[in-house]
Design goal:
single chain, alpha+beta, SH3 type barrels, 2 domains, seven-stranded mixed β-sheet, 7 strands, rod-shaped
Length: 183
């Protein structure tokens, strides 16, 4: 019985370790330089962070762009007294740089939870079979089943989260060129 229990521990540990050794890092921010007139399609529907010439950073959802102003729904600001939250219009001359925030997905996490649940079902089935062959479902087996279940579901969620981060669009830093530049 103890040998089989140890083998379960070792198998679960090796499996979970193999999942967590994948080093997945976010892609670095991309750099691009565009004219003011080319910003609208790039920013449409995106979360942005705008660095202003006075050093303040205003973040939120892009709303629109006019000849000399960018409109956004500010949800965070480094200087609330100068740049309050809410609908904000930033002048072209005040904007130093725009960072388009990364888009995080959810599908990997959902798939990871499902995969973790499937692994849990298999492991609990194996432990249940071992327990029946050994004479009953004891508290030792219940603890192992619970621990492996939590680790498998948590590991699946972690792997899904890492996959979402890897597949997400990276941040993009946008520098604004003068209208006549590059022609």
């Amino acid at each position: 019985m103890k040998v089989q229990l140890r083998l379960c521990y070792i198998a679960a540990t090796v499996f979970l370790y193999s999942l967590t050794t994948m080093a997945v890092f976010a892609a670095p921010a991309g750099q691009s330089a565009v004219r003011w007139s080319e910003l609208a399609p790039l920013l449409k529907g995106r979360q942005i962070s705008v660095t202003l010439s006075d050093g303040a950073i205003v973040g939120g959802k892009y709303s629109g762009i006019q000849a000399n102003t960018l409109t956004m729904q500010a949800t965070r600001t480094s200087e609330p007294s100068k740049h309050p939250k809410g609908v904000t219009q930033l002048t072209r001359s005040d904007i130093q740089q725009i960072t388009i925030q990364r888009h995080a997905g959810w599908k990997g996490r959902a798939i990871g939870l499902i995969a973790g649940g499937a692994i849990t079902a298999v492991v609990v089935g194996v432990i249940s079979t071992i327990a029946k062959n050994e004479g009953g479902w004891g508290s030792g087996y219940a603890g192992v089943a619970g621990g492996v279940s939590a680790a498998a579901i948590g590991g699946g969620y972690l792997i899904g989260w890492l996959a979402d981060r890897e597949g997400a669009r990276p941040e993009q830093v946008v520098q604004i060129l003068p209208e006549g530049a590059g022609q």
